[in-house]
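In response to a reviewer's request, we include the raw inputs and outputs for one of the modeled complexes. The three entities were modeled together in a single run.
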Amino acid sequence: MAAPAGTGRGAASGPILRTEGLTMRFGGLTAVNKVSLSVERGEIRAIIGPNGAGKSTLFNCITGVLRPTSGRIFLNDENIAGLMPDEASHRGLARSYQITNILPGATVLENVRVAAQSRRHAWNMLRDRRSFPDLIDKARAVLQAVGLTEQEDELAANLSHGAQRNLEIGIALATEPQLLCLDEPTAGMSVSETHATVELVRRIAKDLTIVIVEHDMEVVMGLAKTITVLHYGEVLAEGTPAQIQANARVQEVYLRG
Amino acid sequence: MGLPVEQILIQTINGLVNGMILALVASGLTLIFGIMDVVNFAHGELVMLGAFVGATALGVTGNFWLALVVATLVIAAFGAILQVSTLRPLLGRDPLTTILATFGVSLVLQKYALWQWGPSARKLQEPISAQFSLFYLQYPWYRIATAVLSAAIIGALYLFLKYGKYGIGIRAAMQDRVMAQAMGIPVPLLHTAVFAIGAGMAAASGVLFGPLAGVTQTIGADFTLRAFIVVVVGGMGNLGGSILASIFISLLEAYASLIVSPAQAVIVSFVALILTLLFRPTGLFVPTAR
Amino acid sequence: MLTLSDVHTYYGKSHILNGVSLEVRAGEVVGLLGRNGVGKSTTLKTVMGLVRPSEGRVTFEGREIGGMASHRVAHLGIAWVPEDRRIFRLLTVMENLRTGLDRPGVTEARRAELLDKVYASFPVLAERRNQAGGTLSGGEQQMLAIARAMMLEPKIILLDEPTEGLMPRMVGQISEIISVLHRDRVAILLVEQNVPLTLEASDRVYIMEKGVVRHHAPAADLRANHAVIHQYLGV
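The model returned the following structure tokens for the whole complex.
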């Protein structure tokens, strides 16, 4: 069963991701409080907010790592709240992690091929992996998209930090998602590595919807079409980069901490 | 099938006596785990070495209490050397590494004892041979004395930890090693000191228990096993809990040996261990309100 | 007094500090601002010996301290108040303070003096002196963490986000405490997200971005000219 790839032009209309009153409570602490947001197909959405605003928690709810206390999450009109991450993945949602999840002992190509295999020929254990040329082609295409073609046969452990983070993105891409969630993709990167990653995200965004949590304002302002600002678990403001920059309340919240 | 009350009471006293000696061993083990996250599989061997050194010292000096002090000090010093040479270099590594290291040490110590003292059992003569009438039995005063002495040593440890100058440092390091060190507390030094204290206490229990059970190379294994059961049931790193658990486990075994043979009575300890792990894995005697 | 020169640190492969250089002179309050994740806390931890620099130097009073064990750093006169306070929850307030008081070379009389002084500055701690640290409120724990650091009679205190999660009223109290310390000629390296508090309390301010210091100015200049603040910290 091949999952639908890309944004499926001509497929379902309406927002690709929608949350309704999403709330996450940990005992007495309400980390995410009735957040309702809606992400259009094909856009790049950034979620920002000061320390403790609930960005990571919201992210973890959407991607199935946490089960929300209440509220609903719609991926293409299907409620995915409470689904396990692999179930969410099969419905077209992929994410990258802050701690790199690559297979250090495998080559760059193998890392991506394994991810691609989750989508195609997943249960076919009897034939040798080399007899699936479409997998290799797919993996190579992903490597080109993330700029790692030259390092195809390099062991993932030997890559630089920036390259490893980009490989992470490649692994997520190989699962042919409709919605790609990136968790602080430029954390721990130098300025030049950051620029390379921003270019990468711009390139792959043409066929995808992307939701990105970030601290680096230059990255956010340069990439996002719409920005959602969280504060104490609630949506403080939403708008284009220009609108958010001009928003006095947002400035106040950021500068006061 | 009513059991005579006298037998139950006698076993209660036996359980308490054994419990106190076990508490002496287990508190050293808990302390070591609490401050440096080391699961010391060689702890029972420290008990065993203490007993042997005590027996040797008794043979030389003829004085039991002197032998007790000598054994405690010698093994404490040995513990310090052991910690500095074997365990300090492993600080911060995978816990499995320290488990393997201490297990290896226990094997070495067992064979060393065999080489040093030969295969035959040593005798540790109890210093008090007087007995008193307990129901239909003649109960040895010495057993009561060991319980009292163990309690005294544990009491001294408690006072030291609560009020002593380094006691606070040790307790702080048990809760948050990094912050304690950032407050200027010399945590590596404390690790060595605590290991030495634990070793000394283990040696003392070896000497105290010697007259009751004999001194051979293998007594260590029994102690290690029971001490670990106690530490898990009492809550890892919880000193008060391990003392209560020692008494609890020993009483259980004492009562069980009314029904089955003492060798089989140890089964109840394992049942207690399994039940604790299944239902209250943080420990039976850990306060739930934190 | 305290200098960092081109300090680099890594966390695994992640390059956290990318060449940080800053200095704190005796008796100064120096602010360190920046958004989340830029490496402010890591800078403090590197000074404290909790993180080993892979390149660059950290010197205190002329002495190289990069990679030094943290208990020795504390003995040199550097105290750390971490972001999550990290008070010893099972020790009483008094015992928490004693972890700093029980040092070689402190007479009984001096200990009593220091305790009295801290109880006078923090009456709420005096009230709760026999209570377990874990039962204190967030604000009280922050007071205790700072008081505990003061017990070391440090030359410099590394304060990591002292106002985080505190109510506005308590933020004022923190501000006061910083003034008192400043008056007593204790230097402070203050990491904060609260910009107004930092600008008001500091003599000089460094602004960090992605593991480096991007801007450095006297606080007075930044108070007058907000554009720089907005550029690096705003949205």
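As requested, we also summarize the result in words. Residues 2-88+154-233 of chain C form a domain with the Rossmann fold fold (CATH 3.40.50.300). Chain C has one domain: 2-88+154-233.
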